[in-house]
Design goal:
Layout: H1 2-16, H2 21-66, H3 75-86, E1 98-103, E2 145-146, E3 154-164, E4 177-187
Antiparallel strand pairs: 1-2, 1-3, 3-4
Helix pairs in contact: 2-3
Length: 191
């Protein structure tokens, strides 16, 4: 009985004691706050890189629209070099990371090649008549023709790259990689 009474007194005393509660609260909340902080930093850096890449692509598309080729370097490589310089060394793009599609007009960007829907199902079915805008011999969901275009043509430049999380091992959902892209549409000058 004495033992039980002693236990209840100790329990009451322990329950009323407030020492160390702040340390326990911090221990419970700190990991969550740290994860949120690192997530915000990661997102901010990714947004910064995307903005820098878009700015570099804007500058580089000026080279593309003028048709400028310098010192034996192709327009594509010149565009990549300009974007890499603008990225402050944070991204290293290669020729495979950029694509350029030529369109008849601004309104045609991303549009499928026109076709005659003879069966009325609302989607292209093999064998239906279509206008081969890009000249590749088959119907395409995007009528853009690969290339840098000629004088006065509409060109869509797109850069696709992967941004590696700084904390990629902590967030395994995307394997530490965020697929990102930047695009710019220009009308080539009459060069």
């Amino acid at each position: 009985m004495k033992r039980l009474l002693l236990r209840s007194r100790l329990f009451r005393r322990f329950r009323k004691n407030q020492e160390g509660t702040t340390a326990v609260e911090v221990a419970l909340i700190a990991p969550v706050l740290i994860v949120i902080l690192f997530g915000l930093i990661e997102l901010s850096v990714a947004m910064f890189i995307n903005t820098v890449i878009e700015g570099g692509l804007r500058d580089a598309s000026r080279i593309g629209l003028t048709g400028l080729e310098t010192d034996g370097v192709s327009r594509e490589q010149t565009i990549i070099n300009i974007v890499n310089d603008a990225s402050l060394g944070l991204v290293d793009l290669e020729l495979g990371d950029i694509s350029s599609l030529v369109y008849p007009s601004f309104g045609d960007i991303g549009m499928p090649e026109p076709y005659t829907d003879s069966n009325g199902d609302g989607v292209y079915t093999a064998g239906e008549d279509f206008d081969d805008i890009n000249g590749n011999g088959g119907w395409d969901e995007d009528m853009g023709n690969a290339g840098l275009g000629g004088p006065g043509e509409i060109v869509l430049y797109t850069i696709r790259y992967n941004w590696n999380f700084l904390s990629g091992q902590v967030v395994p959902v995307l394997n530490g990689v965020i697929p990102m892209s930047a695009s710019m549409v220009v009308r080539n000058e009459p060069f």
